[in-house]
Amino acid sequence: MALSFFTKNRKAIQARCRDDYATKMRLKYAPYYHAMEAQNGTTVRLHGKETIMLSSNDYLGLSFHPKVIEAGRAAMLKWGTSTTGARTSNGSRAYHVELEEKLAAFLGREACHIHVAGYLSCLSSVASFAQKGDVVLADKNIHSCLWDGIRLSMATVERFSHNSPDDLREVLGAVNQDATKMLVIEGVYSMEGHIARLPELSEIAEEHGCFTVLDDAHGFGVLGRQGRGTVDHFGLNDKVDVICGSLSKSLASTGGFVAASREIIEYLRTHSKQTIFSAAISPSQAACAQASLEIMQAEPQHLEKLWANTKKYRAMLKSLGLDTWESETPAVPIVLGSKERVYPFWKALLDKGVFTVMSIAPAVPAGKDLIRTAISAMHTEEQLEKIADAMAYAMKKL
Ligand SMILES: Cc1ncc(COP(=O)(O)O)c(C=O)c1O
């Protein structure tokens, strides 16, 4: 009896996987999970054809920097391939502490903790500190990892309109004033390319005693002095309690970080399940991130080139009349409004040798279906010209 119960359930889940509509559509149109056959900077080979990568998050273009490659290689020779354990137990190494100290100092914080993924860092930046009974004020457009953190925290969530201080004030006015409150925002919104209206948002948060968590996965390396990020860009270091982010974008590695005061980071190390029960980042991951961090401070040309490329690219899109959702950063969406328009546009770009990513509702708000593009310091003049031609061609397919 018991056995047949389990068999039935297993089969029900097998049927769910087999019959899933979203998976069938994904496999039919194959817009995602493209495996590039080779890469050299912003050029990838896809289906045997040289293609320009226009949607990576390698903003500073450091993933092929000789010093970053050499640092990763040397770390692996010295420390092996993996820590094979959590920081709490057997996985902690001197190089973790060194990277954490360097990141903390760069961000003007007392302490930092690194994880194997930005997803874990940002999720735990919410889940470790908010609890049942607390109220989390969340910008409607935050990343999935922050929503997961909110869900795990069991706190009550109140959403406010994207990047709207007025709406935040209104929503805050209606919540229990005695509740413990947390504000969760991004520094630069990954899809929209918008910069958080931090001066106004943080002022309101201060008035209401909100603990503020800012995910700067797309602001780090891009904004602020030497790429210190959104908080530095506005000079508001004392207004944000936790800055979290990713090592997989400007830092050209994989992993994530949480930076804050020492007592906040030590609390995270005591209570965050993602910190306690997940393996520490590998030697080469840490070394590549640390080398990139050093390059950000020693070689300003990458940040300068990133912004020069971004300005050219945005001007080109504007001259074609494309809607970039008022992006202010190198993450530039091309809003087309429906999946019926997004697919042919994306396909036309690919046919012309430009790789981008489609993002359709519910991943973006209804009516904002878009192509996500992102500029890198590594894009060349010639590539920008090819991209312009491809955009003009794709527009004719709408
Ligand atoms: C805003 C934001 N936060 C967190 C993450 C997660 O970072 P990672 O890819 O390093 O896990 C991403 C990744 O896309 C992101 O866009």
Give the helix/strand layout.
Layout lengths: L1 H18 L1 H9 L8 E3 L2 E4 L2 E5 L12 H14 L14 H13 L4 E5 L2 H10 L7 E5 L4 H10 L2 E5 L4 H10 L6 E6 L11 H10 L3 E5 L14 H5 L7 E5 L9 E5 L1 H10 L1 H4 L6 H16 L2 H19 L11 E5 L3 H13 L2 E2 L1 E3 L10 E5 L6 H16 L2
Parallel strand pairs: 3-12, 5-6, 5-7, 7-8, 8-9
Antiparallel strand pairs: 1-2, 2-3, 4-10, 9-10, 11-14, 13-14
The structure holds pyridoxal-5'-phosphate.
Pyridoxal-5'-phosphate binds next to helix 5.
What's the short story on this structure?
The chain has 398 residues and is an alpha/beta fold.
Describe the structure.
This protein is α/β, with parallel strands linked by helices. The chain has 2 domains: 31-59 and 300-396, Aspartate Aminotransferase, domain 1 (Alpha-Beta Complex), CATH 3.90.1150.10; 66-298, Type I PLP-dependent aspartate aminotransferase-like (Major domain) (Aspartate Aminotransferase, domain 2, 3-Layer(aba) Sandwich), CATH 3.40.640. 44% of the residues lie in helices and 16% in strands. It has 15 helices and 14 strands. A 7-stranded mixed sheet has the order 4-10-9-8-7-5-6, with helices on both faces. Strands 1-2-3-12 form a 4-stranded mixed sheet. Helix 6 links the parallel strand 5 (135-139) and strand 6 (156-160). The protein is globular, with a radius of gyration of 22 Å. The model has no long low-confidence stretch (mean pLDDT 96).
Structural key phrases:
398 residues, alpha/beta, Aspartate Aminotransferase, domain 1, Aspartate Aminotransferase, domain 2, 2 domains, 7-stranded mixed β-sheet, 16% strand, binds pyridoxal-5'-phosphate
